[in-house]
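S.,

As promised, the DP6 run. Input:
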Amino acid sequence: MTSTATAHPNIALAKYWGKRDDALIIPATGSLSLTLDVFPTTTSVTVSDDAADAVELDGAALAGEESNRVRSVLDRVRELSGRTEKARVVSVNTVPTAAGLASSAAAFAALATAAADAFGLSADDRMLSRIARRGSGSASRSIFRGVARWNAGTDDESSYAEPLAWHGPALAMVVAIVSSKRKAVSSRTAMRRTVETSPYFAAWVASSATLLEQMSDAVAAGDLETVGELTEQSALRMHASMFGAVPPVRYLSAASLALFDTVLNLRSDGIEAYATADAGPNVKVLCRSDQAAEVVAGLSAVIPDADYVVAHAGPGAHIVDGVGA
Ligand code: DP6
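Predicted complex:
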């Protein structure tokens, strides 16, 4: 039996950075994101009689830490479905892997959705979100379309994402790609280092709780200006917490900062645009769909070397008819 699912990356507006439980991936903070309509990952899971799970990503066999993460999702699906067979997993990414473009979020959301279906587990979206979380925390949010909030929770049961309604202007996310290189420090390692060594981590956690509530209220009110301002605050505070780690973690490059500055200038010209960045130098700019072209024009006038991709709110993870694994 083969099941195939597709999922899209999401970009956090209120960031997740730091875990309180590394094994179950229970985050230190809740977070809120926008699922995009670009760079999907498609994953097929086939239940097999093999002696071990086999995982292939973009045509290459996966081993080590990454395949362990896949196995932790498969193990959870086996546990919940009461089955013991192994699986063959074949995944195709359309986003530059590990360049801070949330490829793991799409990958593990697609994996959870395909694996649950292949093993005959009838899981609702909340359960899929909890399963996807075992592979990568941010994947819990890519189960859902559009705006989603991941409630930090305190255990496996209570740590899941859920969709939030957005009645404000149609949203776009302009992705400014300044580098597609694999990052030097994985977000998992950087997160752990921040938790263990940064004197700013406690302040990050405390301030995130307040910010998440403010942002959730602004989402409910359809208030893009407040959501956007809080988006920039969350990103910069997250990066500040990493700057304080030993040794420091710095994902933002000179080009990233130039993009943040340009976004600020666009705002003073009356364009509603707000910058954010994750575990890499690429910058994502939240804006109104009807102003996305102006945002691209404004950014590329100052930073012509970057590649610009305009994304909109995208669909949640779902089963598709795929070619067999
Ligand atoms: C900066 O979800 O990739 O993108 O749970 O260790 O797999 P793991 O981390 P991951 O971290 C994402 C961090 C972030 C912010 C965010 O997406 O909220």
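The radius of gyration is 19 Å. Residues 25 and 137 are 6 Å apart (CA to CA).

- D.
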